[in-house]
Write a structure and sequence with these properties.
The protein has 16 helices and three strands. By secondary structure, it is mainly α. The protein has two domains: 214 residues, Citrate Synthase, domain 1 (Orthogonal Bundle), CATH 1.10.580.10; 99 residues, Cytochrome P450-Terp, domain 2 (Cytochrome p450-Terp, domain 2). It has a three-stranded antiparallel β-sheet with strand order 1-2-3. The structure holds carboxymethyl coenzyme *A.
Length: 379
């Protein structure tokens, strides 16, 4: 076979590598389903805990099953002291680096680390879902010189995160909003980080390694890092009246408007619609409507780009929500990560169920049979 017979699909655009039952994205019509359930139904009626069960187990729980799952999540919230010590030692790093390092370190304290059975992966997935917010909150408090706050069993997953981050029992509305935000980020097909997690699993490695891979990939601004970049852009703009000049300059210089565009969605990301409404209401509730106004004015300027399939994605409004909750900008991608652990767990379990080593090829286009010249004879 010659190189001319080979077709290269750079970026693996529109390549299907396997089947899945975890989620389905209808990119043309802007629809998303987790395990067959429309994301809008889940966002309006479910909770992050229930949706995590759905993703990991494949079906919705009954009351007893949800209660058990929730109590397992709650009892896994405390971090080993040695992991807190590691966080102290790397506290000056970016929160995503601290999260990646700490998740990797947790493998040393997990009794199931090398067990790749379905049951063990469920147990580990629950633990990692509960431990990730604990890492992010502990790190943020340690770097601010504050004490690490023990979890509160009376609070939901999302409210407990806010409590352990700020030290104050959060407003019920804020807790509900963050719960929905986690739910909306929980799973999303073969995005780059889930692909990475699957590649790690495909070598018969383990869930901690797969999730560590996922965190490293999610950090990039083309993926989960975009929420942080959107809020930076809104701050650079400063006032709604400055938006037009800023965005025109950015686009004229072939820059990218963060929070817009997606490999699969060619219409508005359904998750962005929920977050848009939430960001608007939160801004009104907190008496800070400026950020929503800036984002809306960016969205208006981007309307002509919808024809090219460049529309709002999940990251466009999420940064404003975190900002209005008083969360530091550099924690935004970590919040995305906390939401995504159940999705990674579900996909890693799927990969293990019908495993095949994921090992594509690169087409070599360098020289061949070059004569080795001893170093002294090289010019
Ligand atoms: N602003 C301006 N132009 C854009 C944008 C944007 N945000 N996104 C894509 N385009 C243009 C791009 O310049 C290119 O134009 P041309 O064909 O003239 O060179 C065309 O659209 C196709 O872009 P692409 O990079 O080939 O498309 P892709 O599918 O590889 O990229 C993307 C997807 C998400 C990396 C890209 O849209 C982007 O960089 N967006 C901004 C970052 C962002 O918001 N990322 C979050 C993604 S959603 C959350 C997640 O799942 O992680």
């Amino acid at each position: 076979m010659t190189n001319d017979d080979l077709e290269i699909k750079r970026g693996l655009k529109d390549i299907y590598i396997d089947t899945t039952k975890s989620s389905y994205i209808d990119g043309k019509n802007g629809r998303l389903f987790y395990r067959g359930y429309d994301i809008n139904q889940l966002a309006n009626n479910s909770t992050f805990e229930e949706t995590s069960y759905l993703l990991m187990h494949g079906e919705l729980p009954n009351e007893r099953e949800l209660e058990k799952f929730d109590s397992e999540l709650k009892s896994a919230r405390k971090l080993p002291d040695k992991v807190i010590e590691i966080i102290r030692n790397v506290q000056s790093s970016h929160p995503m680096d601290v999260l990646r390092t700490s998740i990797s370190a947790l493998s040393a304290f997990d009794v199931d680390v090398n067990d790749n059975s379905r049951e063990a992966n469920l147990r580990k997935g629950i633990r990692l879902t509960a431990q990730s917010p604990a890492i992010v909150a502990a790190h943020d408090r340690i770097r601010r010189g504050e004490n690490v706050i023990p979890p509160d069993e009376n609070l939901s997953h999302a409210s407990n995160f806010l409590y352990t981050l700020t030290g104050e029992i959060p407003d019920k509305e804020d807790g509900k909003l963050l719960d929905k935000d986690f739910l909306l980020h929980a799973e999303h097909g073969l995005n780059a980080s889930s692909f990475g997690a699957r590649i790690t699993a495909s070598t018969q490695s383990d869930l901690h390694s797969a999730v560590t891979t996922g965190v490293g990939i999610l950090k990039g601004p083309s993926h989960g890092g975009a929420a942080e970049s959107v809020m930076k852009m809104a701050m650079d703009i400063g006032e709604p009246d400055n938006t037009e000049e800023y965005i025109k300059n950015l686009l004229n210089n072939r820059g990218r408007v963060m929070g817009f565009g997606h490999r699969v969605y060619k219409s508005v990301d359904p998750r962005a619609i929920h977050l848009r409404d939430d960001a608007k209401k939160l801004g009104e509730r907190k008496n800070q409507t400026k950020w929503y106004s800036i984002l809306e004015s960016i969205a208006e300027l981007m309307v002509p780009y919808a024809k090219k399939g460049i529309c709002q994605n999940v990251d466009f409004f999420s940064g404003a929500i975190y900002y209005l909750m008083g969360i530091s900008e550099d924690l935004y991608t970590s919040i995305f990560t906390m939401g995504r652990i159940p999705g990674w767990t579900a996909q890693v379990m799927e990969q293990f169920e019908k495993n095949i080593l994921i090992r594509p090829r690169l087409l070599y286009d360098g020289l061949l049979d070059i004569d080795y010249v001893p170093i002294k004879k090289r010019s």
